[in-house]
Please model this.
Amino acid sequence: MNVTDQDLQYFISALKNYTKYDFSDYSDKSLKRRVEKVLADRNLDVAGLITSVKNSQDFAETIVKEITVNTTELFRDPQTWHLLRSRILPRFKNNKNINIWHAGCSTGQEVYSMMILLHEMELFDKAKIFATDLNSDVLEAAKKGQYKYRFNIGYLDNFDKVIKQNPLNYEEFNDVPYEKYFEIDKAKDTITMKKFLTEKPIFRKHDLVKDGNLFFAKFDLILCRNVIIYFNYNLQNKVFELFHSNLYPKGCLLLGMHETILGPWATKFEKIGQAYVKK
Amino acid sequence: MNQLKGMNFLRNLKMGQRIQLFVFLTVVATYTMSGIVLSYLSVSRAKSTSEKQMSVYVDNLEGMIDLQESITKNGLDQADFSALKNHFYKAAFHKTDFPFILSNNGKYLLHITKEDQRIPKDLFIQISNNPDKRGYLTIESAKGTEVIYYKYLSNYDIYLGISTPDSEVIESVAQNRSVMILVVIIAISLFFVIVSLIIKPITRTIQQVNSSIKKMALGLEGDRLERIQNDELGQIIGSLNTLTEGLSRTSHFAKELGNKHLNAEFSPLSTDDILGNSLLAMRDSLKVAEQEEKRRKQEDETRSWITSGLAMFGDILRQNNNNLSHLADSVTQNLVNYLNANQGGLFIYNNEDTSNPHLELVSAFAYNRKKFFEKTIALNEGLIGTCAVEKNTIYLKEIPSGYIAITSGLGEATPTSLLIVPLKLEDTIFGVIEIASFTEFNQHEIEFVEKIGESIASTLYSVKNAIRTNQLLEQSQQQREEMAAQEEEMRQNMEEMQATQEEMARKTIEMEGISKAIDQALIYCELDEEANIFLPNDNLAVAMGYPKHELDGLNLSELVHISNKKEIAAIRNEIAQGSPYKGTLRMLTRDGIDLYLHINVSPTFDDMGGIYKIILIGQDITESKLLEIKAQKQADEIEANLAELQAEQEIARMKENDIKGLLQALDTTCLITEIELSGKITYINNKNVETLGDPKDKIEGKYHRDLDGLAKKSPKDYEAFWNSLLSGISQNRVFSLTVNGLEKWISEHYTPVTDDNGNVTKVINIGFDITDSKEKEKEMQRLISEIAQLKKDNNK
Model:
């Protein structure tokens, strides 16, 4: 099912008019592909989709959930975590509190990875973790902290790379058992995060397009990885502005591996590796 | 009727009354009869006595007559009669029994009243005709019946006689009779009283006996009577009492039997006691029947125990046939309870791993609690393993010590009997069930467990199959779901990659545009850590007057003016520290001309913080610098303006500071405008807003030609300008405009941005605010004119 630009515009305006979601500043190519996928999955045409969206908030909500992309893994992109471990988090060592916002936390692997790393760095108790996503389903999954073992088996390597090994010193090896942070049940095919991890973060539904900062706090670290790729330039800048205004001075913004700030907000940050530090 | 009434009357009389009546009548009759007889006899005797007395009297009289005669001798004459009168005129024995003398012709010769009278002829005939010459005659006279005794006295030819009236004779007897009657009445009364006295207690006793018997006849218990007499009645009472007591005992016994107290004490009244013996016999047969009944009941119970057990387990096995562990739990718990046993476990034969077939404990209950522990037993290991291999029930009445793993925490006893039954179906083993109990197992219980074992085995067989099927189904379902999830995840991953790629492509284009703009607008080269130059752009080559290839590899220090050599060291130092360097370098062109470059050296880093490349971006500020220098020179000359110039230097330095790094430098120092090919302005940066005072929304979306001064002044020139841009030729120009009453000078560098195919996609204008320089120029001119004026004035 091919979706034309026109179709996409109709769909976006239907969402905008009948739901609280505004996708008009999303990257249209990506959005188009997702809509095409939804249409194919549901065997619908664009007109049908729009009618259903208009008629049912629940359906619209489901569609929004299906459109959004929730890719995440434990310790995704280990070099990012190495950066966090060696260069970013140590900056907050002497802070009284460390406020961390995972914007677009998806199913929460990044949140748990962060907490594990913080725990290993003995910063866990100082940290306050806030995590948001547009999709309430993935938030529920994140709160539960239970993942498919088989899907995530490869990501345990990431755990090893980040937590057990030190890329700066290959002779160093911390044998941290997985059981310290999660239970693996191969029979049930689950990885379940320990309670002390699942009960720590504050999970909230949040729309980066319009919700601003939900928390009455500023942040030392904002992670928004692989989110802005779905936004157009305009929305990207809007989001950068939001992050910038809610970071403490010297606070860090961490984007995805292939995401960069270009344009006006670039000069408001100093780049340390992949991370942007608020000037 | 009357007869009947009389009969009924008699019948209804009580025994005592009847006896009294009978006795009374009998006594009366007897006494009457004996009175009559006595009276008759006494009358007869009186009569005979009287007759004898009469004969004696007559004889006496004869004697007297004889005596008289003897005296007188002449026969009997009147004298004699007179003499004899005394004897004849008195009654002999009674009142009127006067003797008489009759003449041979029947004439009374001597009689108290009838002298000279004649005796009735017929009588005299009888008398005279009697040959015995003596006899008795009975006559009826006025005085009633009279008896006459007569005797013929042949000596005197007379008849001597006496008549005695019967009445007088009987009179004494009659007197006796009254007495007798009185005596009889008294006797009867006495008799009656005595009889009453004797009969009353008897009748009372009889009544009691009667009522007692009546009660007994009605089936009630007879009264116990007091035995007073030892007579027959006493014996009757005794017997009755015995009978009552016997009956009471017997009935009590019968009652006990009725209440099924078959062991009640009872001895028969006698060896021949029919009822008692019958009861005893009945008791014995009842006992036998009871035992029989008991036995049958037990059999029935056993049968119903087995039947309902089979039904119950049938249900259990049916209900739980989709979950092996539920099934095992349910079976074990219920079996333990049903057998009143203490603990039990169910082992399932697991031969999935053919190299290690074993028995797995799937459910265990003890002391009515489910126990959770894992246990596997190899075939042939221990009792369970043996049972599984031999496929035979094992029943131990003594459990080997230490065999029971579960003991009561409450200190209850440990079981003593152990039953191990194989769960087999057609000789295939499916598991083993083990049950331990405090009591011994009955044969039927063991058989029951064996039977249940078969059902369990059969269910296990089907459950295993069902579970296996379910598992396969679930597995395939799960695999399908997982595949779908994986597919979705992959799709999302792909989407992310694609989005990332697009984003990167977009950025690349942007970067290319920007670098092109930089390349065309600014001086650009890369440095190594020693500040050797790589990849210089044309602007640098042109500005420095070197051909490009000569610049390549040249150290920056070789291009700077001798006075600025130490700045190179500073640059190296900054680079080594990873910091950017900003500053103005005084360069010497190949032709030895001073060239002022405002440069920004920015090291860029890789992810691990290592230096990736060092970029130098510079702007030829010679013009303004020279002016500045000129101005400074002037200022040196003019002390009054020195401070101002210094301030301006400060501003210039600040401006320099503003130019940081590639993009930062651009964004903060240049006026950047992005223009679509249509001429529509899509973006202006903050600097632009800052400098020109128009807010973004006022400019963005407008067309360049509508805002541009040149277009207004000379549309033709503008068209030429625009067309050359569209054809890919960069354009530079300078223009001025008034912002908030201040004149601004802008140097603009229009650079067309091309895509991979060389097509122009948009135009980027990088402008520089050169107002300061212009102003300085003007100021200088002003100063120069002022100075000239001063000189002129001075000259004056």
